[in-house]
Amino acid sequence: MIKKFGRLMLDINGTFLSDEDKLLIENKHVGGLILFSRNFKSFHQIKDLITEIKNIKDNIIIAVDQEGGRVQRFNKEFSKIPSMQKISNYAKANNDDLFLKEVGWLISSELIASGVDINFAPVLDIDDSTSSVIGDRAFANNVSEVIKMSSNFIDGMHEAGMSSTGKHFPGHGGIYADSHIELVKDLRLMNDLEDKDIKVYKNLAKKLDAVMCAHVLFPNINKDLPSYSSFWLKDILKENIKFDGLIFSDDLGMLGAGDESFTDKAIKSIEAGCDMILVCNNRNEAIKVINAFDENNVSLSGKIFNMTKKLKVDWDKLIKSKRREIIKEKLKQIEELR
After folding, report:
1. Catalytic one among 21, 125, 155, 250?
2. Is the pTM of this model over 0.85?
3. I need a labelling partner for 127 at 20 to 30 A (CA). Which of 86, 141, 169, 240 fits?
4. Which domains, and CATH codes, for the chain?
5. Is pLDDT at 22 greater than 80 in this prediction?
């Protein structure tokens, strides 16, 4: 029987669980927990923390942003990963596109060994220098290259036993502004998106396990941010693109998520088609969202179970493996490139 999961993902402040953390994790509506750099000290510490969380309940997914480059939450024993754009440029220059599969396998294997279920990756935005927040997090500034490189990366994730999460739908690479700190508007028309950003999702629809929404408003297409929009999530993502995987909101605490109350944003996200919403860095609002889920009879989800890790990875065997050694040596060479 498939376990049902709560539809809220939240965070914790430190490197161990407080009494309040434990009580919240027990709540039926909490089905995910995202880890940040502040939660990490070492491989063994993070593994022990995740084990403690899973001992409270096993119907919870543990997530992290471990993209590489500027966005890598776990370091020290974990392999240092250059940005995806830097790796993609190397792969293209050396006719070595399949190296992206090796990188996807390595990142995922290390995370699974620590107990993590999902890495919020790959970034499917198309950019190299337009966006202040995406930039070299993107694989390339070219649709076909993003599709090819990210597809190989996903193959590596799947080989390791990890589900993929493409982000940020329908696209965050077309504007300079950063949705973490302001409401972002992209003035492009639907035809522009269909020829570029959305084409990536159409090509990868059957390979992606999940999609995370962008907090980017497209006022010339629809009046709502994607997380709150049945147009974007039902009409475009599900019906037009034929995507049937999981849908995550991005963090509702980002300033680009709008100025409505957290509870209103959370309920609107669920009604629009999000399977799980994220509320980070604001414990009081996360508690209010839990109460709102109770008041609005928000159902649990069996679909979230599909995102749990599929394989077990032994850390001691992994760090001694020849495959990991070869990948790390190549990554070191790439990191040193100018």
Report:
1. 250
2. yes
3. 240
4. 8-336 (3.20.20.300)
5. yes
| 29 is annotated as an active-site residue | no
Residue of 155, 136, 134, 157 lying closest to 88 (CA atoms): 136
Rounded-to-integer distance, Cα 264 and Cα 273, Å = 14
At 283, which helix (H) or strand (E)? Answer: helix 283-295
Residue-wise pLDDT for 165-200, tens only, equals: 999 999 988 777 666 777 889 999 999 999 999 999
Name, in order, each residue with C-beta under 8 angstroms of 87's C-beta and a sequence gap of 6 or more.
68, 81, 99, 100, 103, 331, 334
Rounded to the nearest 10 degrees, the angle between the axes of helix 84-93 and helix 99-114 is 150
Is residue 258 within 8 A of residue 183, CB to CB? The reply is: yes
Distance CA 142, CA 134 (A): 14
- Residue 250 falls in the annotated catalytic set: yes
User: Rounded mean pLDDT of 112-122?
Assistant: 98
What is the average pLDDT value for the chain, to the nearest integer?
94
Q: What is the pLDDT of residue 128?
A: 66
DSSP-derived secondary structure letter, 235 = I
Residue among 78, 83, 86 nearest 67 (CA):
83
Count the Cβ atoms, other than its own, within 10 Å of residue 8.
26
Question: What pLDDT does 132 receive?
Answer: 67
Looking at residue 147, its pLDDT comes to 97
Regarding beta strands 276-278 and 216-217, do their DSSP bridges make them parallel or antiparallel, or are they unpaired? Answer: unpaired
Q: What's CA 133's distance to the chain center, in Å?
A: 15
* SS3 state at 261: coil
Burial class of 314 by CB neighbour count within 10 A (0 to 12, 13 to 18, 19+) = exposed
Query: In this structure, are residues 207 and 164 in contact, taking their beta carbons and an 8 Å threshold?
Result: yes
Amino acid identity, position 247: I
For the segment 12-17, the average pLDDT, to the nearest whole number, is 97
Beta strand 216-217 pairing with 246-251:
unpaired
